[in-house]
Amino acid sequence: MDTDLFGNPVASPGPAPTGGSLSAGHGGTLPLAVRLRPRTLEEIVGQQHLLGPGSPLRRLAEEDATMSVFLWGPPGVGKTTIAAVVSASGRRRFVELSAVTAGVKEVRAELTEAKRQLAAGVGTVLFVDEVHRFSKAQQDVLLPAVENRLVTLIAATTENPSFSVISPLLSRSLLLTLRALTDDDLTVLLDRALVDERGLAGQFTVDDQARADVLRLSGGDARRALTYLEEAAAGAQSRGSTVIDTDTVAAAVDKAAVRYDRAGDQHYDVISAFIKSIRGSDVHASLHYLARMLEAGEDPRFVARRLIIIASEDIGMAAPSVLQTCVAAAQAVQLIGMPEARITLAHAAIACALAPKSNAVIVAVDAALADVRSGRIGQVPAHLRDAHYPAASRLGHGVGYQYAHDAPFGVAPQQYLPDELLGAQYYRPTDHGNEAAMTERLEHLTTLLSEGAPPSPKQ
């Protein structure tokens, strides 16, 4: 017997969605994550910021609204689920396309059929999964249909639409950002899976440590959490047990239960060890702690932000190009997501660990801040003040200022610091890496600014 989108038997088949994860299958072979897919908005776990009264998603599901929506979020947070709920509501025809397998021909064919159906009074919901994989030409084909509201477009993507979707299409659509599920959200989902007749139907129990392992290993991904639970239940059943414990979970996911708590002490301990290993130039330890964080489901954007900070705090001018590498890595992580982002993060971590180290940048800025906070500020020298208004010259502002580009070597010897801070030295480069050259350059500049400097203008 055929099944509907949720794995329930139906007497007569309807038109099946094409090419994607919502396509009908056989109830006995459907994964737990598919069998438990919510049937109404009320059953959706998480994303409450998008599901309030009058929200676009509620209007799509309950009022047959015609609009175009981009659902952007990490894997396993409900993008496909929302499309399924909308498809099960109202009197509209539902079509699913996967950008992995569909081409321009398939898109045009579906839009032609949507136009024919609309003429007969039947609207179409077009769900495009992984829309970021569509080429510009394929996205261009969608544009007239969206602009003329020929279809209600729901497009799902794990990549930032600002980079992966053409501007005309994005400007005519709503962009809704889905958040990673919290441990509380996943707990609700696991409890439902254990007792629901579509799930494990009360046949298994999960001990507290095993539940914590599933939450930790899933990394906010509902699909992953349900897959781990389903495999762990199968493992327990094969041993003749109805209890899912931590060993069962570890065996089910074919990996050790990583001792890492994203919200507790282990989170801070591991990231601390990662930072200190990079600072200590131990590339192997750096990669170990990176792997522990990624395997435990740590947000790769968090790791990327820490690498950017390390690039200035612990490396700085000793290897200034490392900051560019880390910023590029952070942008790449945002664009590609996991699991490919592991390669980019490793690239940046290795660059940081192997680079010469200097904390001269953070020492310099903190020393300057300390003086400012302690009241060592003083007046800006008059010749450096803004002179771009009529009364400035009468006040002496800008009088005697020497334009650096007119001076020998491009260095104008004049007073720059306030009187109260004359002689202050904040940046003290090390002799590590690129900063060794900075030391020589700083000494040369100090000589040009002081020994040959005429007295500062008196006002």
Describe the structure in brief.
The chain is α/β, with parallel strands linked by helices and 459 residues long.
State the name of the first-level CATH class of the largest domain.
Alpha Beta
CATH H-tier superfamily of the largest domain: P-loop containing nucleotide triphosphate hydrolases
What is the CATH topology classification name of the largest domain? Answer: Rossmann fold
Q: Judging from the principal axes of the Cα atoms, what is the shape?
A: extended
> How many domain modules?
4
Mean pLDDT across the residues is 82
Q: How far from one another are the termini?
A: 95 Å
CA gyration radius, whole angstroms: 30 Å
**Portion in strands:** 5-15%
Number of helical regions: 18
- What is the percent of helical residues? 40-55%
Would you report the number of β strands? 7
Biggest sheet, open or closed, and with what strands and sense?
A: 5 strands, parallel
Low-confidence stretches: 1-18, 452-459
In terms of structural class, how would the helical and strand content be classed? Answer: alpha/beta
Q: What is the topology, as strand order, of the major beta sheet?
A: 2-3-4-1-5
**What is the second-level CATH architecture of the largest domain?**
3-Layer(aba) Sandwich
Order of SSEs, N→C?
A: HHEHEHEHEHHEHEHHEHHHHHHHH
